[in-house]
Amino acid sequence: MSLFKLFVRMTLITILTFFVAVSFSFNSIFSSTSVKSLLKEVNIQSILVQMIRSEVHALPAIDNLPSITELSLDLLLNIKPKDVRTYLGNEIPGLSLYHTEIAVAGQGTNITNLPIESPPPIEFIEEIDDYEEEYDKPTPKTNNKNMAVYIYHSHSWEAFKPLLQDQKSANSSSSMNEKANVITVGDKLKQDLEDKGIGVVHSKQNVTKALKSRNWNYNQSYILSRETVQEAMTSNNNLKFLIDIHRDSQPKNITTITINQKKYARLFFVVGKEHKNFEKNLEFAKKLNSELEKKYPGISRGVFIKGKSEGNGVYNQDLTERALLLEFGGVDNDLTELYNSIEAFADIFSGYYWGNSEI
Q1: Which residues is 330 bridged to in the sheet?
Q2: Could you tell me which residues come within 8 angstroms of residue 287 by beta carbon, excluding any fewer than 6 positions away?
Q3: In a designed cystine with 180, which of 24, 175, 285, 287 is the match (CB 3.0 to 4.6 A)?
Q4: Is 116 among the domain residues?
Q5: Residue 330, pLDDT score
Q6: Helix/strand/coil for 283
């Protein structure tokens, strides 16, 4: 357990103890029946959590408060009585990876098929200099007031096996070729949104090369992309929607679905909970997910929530209330399946953007 987390827990326990003590002492301090009756209506737990949530945003909303027993077990032992994974998560290696919270479960989604993140293999990093500069394009500069959406890729190396040419690259599922990795998904989404009248800026930054140039590792990719996003937002105040596009590492049977005899690469949303905009971004993701499922049932694997113990926990989503980490398909999806999914998302997103949907 980190020192910060330990400090937070001890602070919460101290405050909780104080409030419980005060609530009991009220009965002996006040003799007035009316005052005692009034105090009985005061929900000490609600007040306590409301105060703490102003600083610790990961705590649940008041209408989803756990019981005192549940809260105490979580604070003291990191155990949630209603989640069996927390009983063994610190004892069985690898089980902590399954702590990702499922906010909205898509068709067939459960803890056995949660998203899997795949870092670039070491040999891929070492061979970076063998690639052409063609795939190292800077972020476009723009002051166009109509540019509202910023598309970028914190893990630009994530590639799709059907789009890779050589077998060695296919085995690693990583590539700096923007025609084979998630950048090609961003290109298609940009085109589709622009066709619907929405201004888009698309960053094609070669994250792998940029990390190596600073002697940074994979874990610092979100620090790098954050700089890129902040620079873009500084130069254009109208960028209100951030879309970080990734792909999953689950096999094709999990990441593909047929809807009306048409194959789609299933998508899903990841929301970080370690920041002030967590609830707003979660609401945004849920709305888009709901509309997608209405028109394309089964296309979404759901909405997932991650804290720092399951990943970055922020994903640059603190920069706006409309930030998405959106994963299209998996390593085995082909271009047709990806394009079908992108067109579906662009359809729903444009409805949200122009206010034409039920959202």
Answers
A1: 248
A2: 352, 359
A3: 175
A4: no
A5: 96
A6: helix
